[in-house]
Amino acid sequence: MEAYVEAAGRVIRSGRYINGPEVKAFEEALAARSGARHCIAVSNGLDALRLILLGFKALGKLSDGDEVIVPANTFIATFLAVTSCGLTAVAAEVDEATFCLDLSRLPISMRTRVIMPVHLYGNPCWDAEKLAELHSRGILIVEDNAQAIGALSASEGFHGNKATGNLGDAAAISFYPAKNIGAFGDAGAVLTNSDELAAMVRKLANYGAAEKYHHEVCGLNCRMDELQGALLREKLKTLDSVIERRRRNAALYDNAITNPDVVKPLIIDDGTLQVWHQYVIRHPRRDALRQYLSDHGVGTEIHYPVACHKQPCYQGHTLLKTYGPLPVAETLASRVLSLPIADADPRHIQYISELINLFEHGDRN
Ligand SMILES: *Cc1c(COP(=O)(O)O)cnc(C)c1O
């Protein structure tokens, strides 16, 4: 707490609130942490995704209507980023075991230009061989790393690095307060190893100007504030302990939940480092289980109750496509339940697990 007050005070006293040294220092720290060559701190995670897509458009690598494959089970921002940039979001099926985009059956078409894996719940979504092959055919790989800062994939990305956010062509990170590293408000970042994309994203986020009052492209205002930059420099130092606590909590749940009707999330031990943004179980009577936990004072969440392509905003939308039904994603929406993980202590986890183990019984009475 003291460190945050000091950081905020430093910015307030400096009188410099935009495009200053705090954000620059944060960008350097985040780039170093992920191993990526460039980091551009921006306003939020949605804008980070949008700036990447707009950047590729401005560089002539994408054009209106091009198809971007996105997993049907994700936060709506993944889809909104695509459609708000005039690109077509192709909702794709997810893998039941990892909740992430099923890379073994991607709906590739003649117009596919981007694949956007989401490292959902902190689970890395990567297949080096498969994605390298698609990449060699000119398809861009943009990671939505909003939920997985600090995670490691089992296999290397295109840059010989395993850190999510540095696997593909570019990645977006979110520092929404509830994310594993949360700002004191909205904030996000773009990571990339491409010099030209980095320069374009930086320009687009700053009114299209690299030099003040010289607007080379029609840009936006999507900068991160100095206040958030200073606070996030401090927050980023806690990343390893955040990951350690979440991993410990996931292991405790995994050990303590024994109810046979519950499908626990996969703990992957092939060298992958999962960072557990959410601990998501599945149950065929999810709503009843949620109510039962709530009756016992345990708050849970549902990520996400409606698959993105089923959302009202996308009914009849010309930039939303599905190639066939998506039964896995749609079934997950009715079964998933996120248990408390961020701040839960071991006793709390034991209590919640015992409640879950008694659910059948408790439910019948
Ligand atoms: C949070 C999130 C975003 C958007 O980030 P904001 O900072 O809230 O704009 C995008 N994608 C996923 C998967 C997210 O969880």
**Structural class of the helices, strands and pairings?**
alpha/beta
Mean pLDDT level: 97
Query: Which molecules are bound in this entry?
Result: pyridoxal-5'-phosphate
Query: Order of strands across the widest beta sheet?
Result: 1-7-6-5-4-2-3-11
Rg, Cα atoms, Å = 21 Å
User: Per the principal axes of the C-alpha atoms, what is the gross shape?
Assistant: globular
Distance between the ends: 46 Å
Unreliable parts: none
Largest sheet, in brief, is: 8 strands, mixed
Helix count from the secondary structure assignment = 12
Q: Total strand count, please?
A: 12
Description of the molecule:
- This protein has 365 residues and is an alpha/beta fold.
- The protein is built from 12 helices and 12 strands.
- It has helices spanning 2-14, 21-34, 45-58, 76-84, 128-136, 195-205, 226-236, 239-256, 286-295, 327-335, 346-357, 359-364, and strands spanning 38-42, 67-71, 88-92, 112-115, 140-144, 170-174, 188-192, 209-211, 214-215, 279-282, 320-322, 336-339.
- The protein has an 8-stranded mixed β-sheet with strand order 1-7-6-5-4-2-3-11, with helices on both faces. A two-stranded antiparallel ribbon has the order 8-9. Strands 10-12 form a two-stranded antiparallel ribbon.
- Strand 4, helix 5 and strand 5 (140-144) form a beta-alpha-beta unit.
- The N and C termini lie far apart (46 Å).
- Bound molecules: pyridoxal-5'-phosphate.
- The site of pyridoxal-5'-phosphate (PLP) has 15 residues, from helix 3 and helix 4.
- Pyridoxal-5'-phosphate binds at residues 44-46, 74-75, 77-78, 118, 144, 146-147, 174, 176, 186, 188.
